[in-house]
Amino acid sequence: MKEPCECERRIMSPVNLFGPETAKYHDEWIDSLKKLARKRAEAGKFPMEFIVSSPPVEPGGDQSSAGREQASGPTSQRTGAEAGGAKQLRQDEVDEKIAAAIMAKVKVLPRPVIVLIGGGGAAGKSVFAKRLREHLESPDGYRMNVQRLELDHYFYPVELIADRESDGKYDNPLNSDLLRAKKTLQILRGELQLPDGELLTVPVHDRDKHLRAEQSSRPREELRTAQIILVDGLYCLGPILCELGDIGIYIDASPRDRAKGRVWRDVNVRVGRDEEHVVGMLMGREVYHRMFVEPTQFVADYIIRRPPTGGELKVFYKDEVAECLAAACQKVGLEPERIDLLTKLFDELQKGKEAERAAQTEP
């Protein structure tokens, strides 16, 4: 079996992994992603980028399946030209292109096709997964047996988290049982076998109380008979899980739109959360997003972006954003310089991707 990466070794080690230890884990996370991105580049694999052209909907507007995604706002801070040759398409065109790529895998794989859907909090991962499932299951379309696995259920219970008082604690990958999630995917891929008579189970996490539910795990044998499994969550494309997916999709959203979507969702959908509390956690969450989630887009097969909707969100993303991010980094025990390092990493990977594409188009 493949050797564990440094990220897995740190999870398996007995030291306290929270607070300042997050900085060490971040180094290993980025190193692992850079190796994976270079490996993909050497094989000629680069993310295909789509810019969705459908008009956005503000939070509180249409909350249908399509409307909720637009409220959450898969958006981008970059234009089509800056995104390195991204294709501008309607949402239904994007859905069909992704579905066709999945169906191509269904035809050649003797097991369930595993689709990993990553991206930031409130970027629209869940809504995209639901819409894609409807598209693949439609009696007028592909008529596939599709199941969904939410990575949120692999969060540790709050009593097991050392930094339980920190802002955005569940946006830190150390607070998710990613090794259990990895084992689940390995079983679904046929790389691990359960003992005779043992059922495949997944944890059950209560999002409102941040606790494992009374029924702490439940059987999910239907996953093993599915033709397609959609796995969505913050760290689906992280170094521990990304190589277990057959197709990886990153949902891109601007910081302001993710923040607006998160405030709307956490105040209106989830129990016991007031707006002041939710807004107060946004900066801590943004630090973890920039450290751990945003870099995963470089190992995706597809990146789905939408131009930012704009709009105001009080106390967030105004002129003092850099100062607020620095303060949030200090609060969670990290150096603010890490944000600058990540920006340089993005530039490095983007330039490499564009240079490779230019070389491929030369006569």
Describe the structure.
- This protein is α/β, with parallel strands linked by helices and 363 residues long.
- It has one domain (47-320): Rossmann fold, CATH 3.40.50.
- 42% of the residues lie in helices and 13% in strands.
- The chain has helices spanning 6-12, 21-42, 65-72, 91-108, 125-137, 178-189, 222-225, 255-268, 275-280, 282-293, 321-331, 337-361, and strands at 48-52, 87-89, 113-119, 146-150, 201-206, 211-219, 228-232, 247-251, 302-305.
- The strands form 2 sheets. Strands 2-1-9-8-3-7-4 form a 7-stranded parallel sheet, sandwiched between helices. Strands 5-6 form a two-stranded antiparallel ribbon.
- The longest helix is centred in the last third of the chain and has 25 residues, at 337-361.
- The protein is globular.
- It starts with 5 loop residues before the first helix and ends with a helix.
Give a concise summary.
The protein is an alpha/beta fold and 363 residues long. It has twelve helices and nine strands. It has a seven-stranded parallel β-sheet, sandwiched between helices. It has a two-stranded antiparallel ribbon with strand order 5-6.
